Amino acid sequence: MNKSENRIIRKIYRSKDIEQIEEKIAMLGNTKLDAITFMNFRIISSLIVFLVTIYVTNLGYIYAPFITLAYFYLYYYLLIQSPLKQRIKRLDREALHFFEILTLTLESGRNLENSLEVTVANVNSELSNEFRRVLFEVKFGKSLLEALEDMKKRMPSETINNILLNITQTDVFGNSILETMYNQIDFLRDKQILEIKGEINKIPNKVSIISVLFVVPLILMLILGPFIINFLG
């Protein structure tokens, strides 16, 4: 994108809005989405939806603003918000396994950077890919702390960001990295147990909803069926 195009785009969109979209897209990981392209297509497609609604429906001038507004926010949800939520779930699921392997590697006496190299070589996951990128940046001149700070900016998971914060603080203040990792693994295990208990507690509610929607009407039909038949007869 040349400078003249960039100036035009900055006049259409606020810098704050562009930066927010760029941050969200960065948190999606490996994606071909571009903030400007995303925002341009959303505006253009929303305009098309508006015009089509007016043309197709009899009361289009009434429906068009509401349908267009719904589409505008749905577009953002489907392309950014929903994938972001799914990625957070995946990263949180992968965290315990990754950091357990990292801790085992640290126990062998390696430093943090070498332990990360061994761990990413043996763990295949999205979280491992993020740490692989950290090591790539370190290889080309960044310090490990700088690379980890940059990783935090593109990491949507608050859980993993807290672990990264503890790791960097441990390195800065010279505390025991192993003790820090033991505490973080205990936290991840407790969090996982609580999430499983939460899912189990939701099961009765789901069963109750299914009963109300399907079982209760069927029972009422069986009970009232003969009376209805006699009444109609």
Give an account of the 3D structure.
Helix content is 86%, strand content 0%. The chain is an all-alpha fold and 233 residues long. It folds into two domains: 3-85, no CATH class; 89-194, Receptor-associated Protein (Up-down Bundle). It is flat.
Strand tally: 0
Strand content: under 5%
Q: Which topology of the largest domain does CATH recognise?
A: Receptor-associated Protein
Extract low-pLDDT stretches: none
What is the C-level CATH assignment of the largest domain? Mainly Alpha
Instruction: Using the CA coordinates, give the radius of gyration.
Output: 26 Å
Shape: flat
Largest beta sheet, briefly?
none
Can you tell me the CATH architecture of the largest domain?
Answer: Up-down Bundle
Domain module count: 2
- Give the topology string: H per helix, E per strand: HHHHHHHHH
Helix content: over 70%
Rounded mean pLDDT score: 86
Summarize this structure as a short list of keywords or feature phrases.
233 residues, single chain, flat, 2 domains, Receptor-associated Protein, mainly alpha
Summarize the structure.
The chain is mainly α and 233 residues long.
Describe the protein's topology.
Blueprint: H1 3-12, H2 15-27, H3 35-56, H4 60-107, H5 112-122, H6 126-139, H7 144-153, H8 158-173, H9 177-232
